[in-house]
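explain this:
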Amino acid sequence: MRRLVLAGGITFAADQLSKLGVIHLVGLRERGEVDVIDPLLNFRWAENRGVNFGLLSNDAELTRWALIALALAISAWVVMWVRREAMGRWAEISAGLLVGGALGNVVDRLAYGYVADFLNMSCCGIENPFSFNIADIAIFAGAIGLVLFAGKPSGKGRPTRRKTP
């Protein structure tokens, strides 16, 4: 459980600090875009009022509160699941990534009314029109990690081998 809290805290802090940096230090909201390593990595300002890729953003206020409630419910469920099951290190870290990322996006929705997205990656002549953030990466990585690592024993309660004379 300690790993979940640590991974979640680091993820949440990295997400919020990166957003504060690009919003206030870089002034990305006003500038719109900054080429970092063009075209591979760019900062492109986006206000996501829906779910992934702006889906369900028509009734933004209703969607905002529904997504806050959903993120909090899923986060609470994941924490209870990890507490109840004997999960291994990587499953706990994955859960922390998912919860930390979800809470980072919840804070955005509460503070701004939208999720602040700013990372954009394009390659090989294909222009990616979508932006994302560190929380989005963590949620995706955490979900994949839980699929891969949940259900594997943590090593606690493993029967000890008897030594034969």
